[in-house]
Amino acid sequence: KAGVTQTPRYLIKTRGQQVTLSCSPISGHRSVSWYQQTPGQGLQFLFEYFSETQRNKGNFPGRFSGRQFSNSRSEMNVSTLELGDSALYLCASKRTGGVGNYGYTFGSGTRLTVV
Amino acid sequence: AQKVTQAQTEISVVEKEDVTLDCVYETRDTTYYLFWYKQPPSGELVFLIRRNSFDEQNEISGRYSWNFQKSTSSFNFTITASQVVDSAVYFCALTDNNAGNMLTFGGGTRLMVKP
Question: Using H for helix, E for strand and C for coil, what is the string for A41-102?
Answer without folding.
Answer: CEEEEEEEEECCEEEEECCCCCCEEEEECCCCCEEEEECCCCHHHCEEEEEEEECCCCCCCC
